[in-house]
């Protein structure tokens, strides 16, 4: 009947719209997954850079402390020499 044909056309249209929405959602989901992977990669790289910078800061701090000790020892020697 006419009523059933109209209803079938409506359902076809709804199905077509739903399929398009599903495909868009799937594509967006894939884009988001790729973005998450990219961000995880950036985070990993940044963590490595941070760890390297932290290690360098520790090394430099130790070198600075050593240099300060040597400088103080030289000052003490100089003071002793001048005092004599």
Automatic annotation (TrEMBL):
Record's keyword terms, sorted: Coiled coil
Point out the coiled-coil segments of this chain.
8-84
What name has this protein been given in UniProt? Myosin heavy chain
